[in-house]
Amino acid sequence: MTVIEGSVALVTGGRRGLGKAFVEELLRRGAKKVYATARKPVPSEDGRVEVLALDVTDDASVAALAERAQDVDLVFNNAGVLHPAPLLTADLRLVRDTFETNVLGPLRIAQAFAPVLAARGGGALVDLHSLLSWAAGAGAYGASKAALWSLTNSLRLELAAQGTQVVGVHLGFADTEMVAAIPVPKIAPADVARIVLDGVERGDTEVLVDDATRAIKAALSGPVEGLAVPVRR
Fold first, then answer.
1. pLDDT value at position 181?
2. What pLDDT, on a 0 to 100 scale, did the predictor assign at position 55?
3. What is the arrangement of strands in the sheet containing 8-11, beginning at the earlier edge strand?
4. What 3-state DSSP class applies to 130?
5. CA distance 56 to 64
6. Is residue 66 part of a domain?
7. Which of 32, 145, 186, 217 is flagged as catalytic?
8. Of 153, 190, 198, 218, which residue has the fewest beta carbons closer than 10 angstroms?
9. Considering the domain boundaries, does residue 109 fall inside one?
10. Residue 112 above 90 pLDDT?
11. What is the average pLDDT score of the chain?
12. Domain that includes residue 209, residue range
């Protein structure tokens, strides 16, 4: 169980979309400060929000962030990219970028901030996955989220000794700019943030945000042909 009131949080990709919703919900629940990162930071008008530059694909950038934010209790690995394309025709440069950002990026953050969280008593690490972690049809993006899910599950074991709560979040499509062109039902980012932070405060290790995600997870025990959610713009 993690206490948000009075805490200091870090949200990668925290200036728009889901990240912005997490920042707002953290503050609503009493976080005293939130570091919100962006590749091109624009200052916030809220004095409780400190906007910092971050490129999760760059080792030096992540190290500089960890050095600056030594008072963090909660880490939200939210930054990500989506380059929709079938695997057989995908530009491999974009596939590499997808894995650098969506898989190695969160791992860099986890490695850099594990000592910070340990020094603060354990805290929490929250990784944003997707129902596409389990479903076919989303090309490199889905594959990267599957890899992140596996990574999160291993980090949960490795960080248990220092008392860090590791939370894996799965959801369908939030109503953000990144998926604006995909014609599927979408969830309000504020609702996602509320549900996720409820889970963090309860001490959950996994949060399934919506019915679609719960249905896909339930189907994991069935034929693999039943695990398909094609993503097309």
1. 65
2. 97
3. 49-53, 33-38, 8-11, 74-77, 124-128, 165-170, 206-208
4. coil
5. 11
6. yes
7. 145
8. 218
9. yes
10. yes
11. 92
12. 8-226
Give the lowest-confidence range in 83-87, 90-94, 131-135, 180-184: 180-184
Q: 218: domain CATH number?
A: 3.40.50.720
Q: Cα–Cα distances in Å, from 233 out to 29, 91, 178?
A: 36, 17, 11
Active-site option among 32, 35, 141, 217: 141
Among all chains, which residue has been given the structure tokens 């399934």?
A: 208
Tell me whether residue 29 is in a domain: yes
Calpha distance 135→17 (Å, rounded)? 23
Residue 104, SS3? helix
Among 65, 6, 54, which Cα is nearest to 33's? 6
- Tell me if 49 sits within 8 A of 34, measured CB to CB: yes
Tokens representing 142 are: 């889905």
Q: Which residue has the tokens 């932070």?
A: 197
Mean pLDDT calculated for residue range 202-228: 88
62 or 17, which is more confident: 62
Residue 112 covered by a domain: yes
Question: Is 47 buried (19+), middle (13-18) or exposed (0-12) by CB count in 10 A?
Answer: exposed
Count: domains in the chain: 1
**C-alpha closest to that of 34 among 11, 2, 5, 57:** 11
Instruction: Please say whether the dihedral angle defined by the alpha carbons of residues 203, 204, 205 and 210, taken in this order, is positive or negative.
Output: negative
pLDDT > 70: percent of the chain: 92
- Side chain identity, residue 125: L
Show Cβ contacts of residue 126 under 8 Å, excluding neighbours closer than 6 positions.
Answer: 74, 75, 76, 77, 167, 169, 196, 200
User: Does the annotation mark 35 as catalytic?
Assistant: no
- Whether 78 has a pLDDT exceeding 70, the answer reads yes
